[in-house]
Structure to design on (278 residues):
């Protein structure tokens, strides 16, 4: 028709289009297929189970055009970029000194690892059953029977023989109570500690957490007022300490001497005694 011949208007389509003959071909052009990117799977802690994400714009696949001897075949691309979930810190087992460790607790990229790295790159990861020495010190026994002494990074708890004054003005064994609170937190659960270095006594300075509950031990000790923030090594727990002080929890409900001042006084007294001699 005139409109169709001149390229204007809309050509009429016969209600019964003729069948394709050897000299005729109907070209089928399929629209592009677009694949929407899949949202990442999210674990219980709100952290994506995989860090692998498809990059770039959605892929577009053009359907091939038919020829005399070929049929039109549409081949859609895979709809998902299947990524393996990151390995669990537990399933990987412990890692020893000199290993650039990336394992962490319940929150791999969050608080525990970040706090441990305040003193350098995490190079030590140990896990095992814990024996509480006092409110800031553990001995971890690993699967092979090896034992590691751990000083919880960023906190300082009363010494075992230290006494404090309670809200009623009566003295109590705050050092013993602090250790008992840490035992109650851990019970018989496995503990994992992340560390960047050791202290002058060869103890691991680590951020530790209960592997079953995910509780970060140092943070919880300060929150409960059973230990104070030890800013010589880390200031991570200063905000938590402020909350405990305001709420008068634990040590903050009465009066106490800072553990480092108590130790200093004990050393001075010991030197004075040794200097006096017989």
């Amino acid at each position: 028709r005139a409109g169709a011949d001149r390229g204007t208007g809309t050509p009429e389509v016969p209600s019964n289009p003729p069948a394709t003959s050897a000299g005729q071909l109907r070209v089928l052009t399929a629209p592009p297929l677009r694949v929407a990117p899949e949202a990442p799977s999210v674990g219980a802690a709100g952290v994506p189970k995989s860090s692998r994400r498809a990059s770039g714009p959605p892929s577009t696949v053009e359907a091939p055009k038919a020829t005399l001897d070929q049929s039109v075949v549409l081949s859609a691309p895979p709809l998902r970029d299947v990524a393996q979930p990151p390995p669990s810190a537990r399933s990987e087992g412990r890692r020893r000194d000199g290993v650039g460790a990336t394992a962490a607790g319940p929150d791999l990229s969050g608080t525990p690892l970040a706090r441990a790295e305040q003193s350098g790159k995490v190079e030590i990861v140990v896990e095992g059953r814990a024996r509480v020495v006092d409110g800031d010190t553990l001995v971890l026994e690993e699967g092979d029977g090896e034992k590691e002494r751990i000083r919880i990074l960023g906190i300082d708890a009363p010494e075992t023989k230290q006494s404090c004054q309670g809200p009623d003005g009566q003295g109590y064994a705050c050092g013993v109570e602090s250790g008992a609170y840490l035992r109650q937190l851990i019970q018989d659960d496995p503990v994992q500690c992340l560390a960047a270095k050791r202290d002058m006594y060869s103890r691991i300075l680590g951020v530790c957490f209960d592997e079953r509950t995910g509780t970060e031990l140092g943070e919880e000790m300060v929150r409960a007022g059973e230990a104070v923030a030890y800013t010589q090594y880390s200031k991570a727990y200063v905000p938590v300490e402020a909350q405990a002080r305001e709420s008068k929890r634990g040590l903050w409900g009465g009066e106490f001497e800072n553990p480092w001042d108590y130790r200093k006084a004990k050393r001075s007294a010991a030197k004075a005694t040794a200097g006096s001699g017989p």
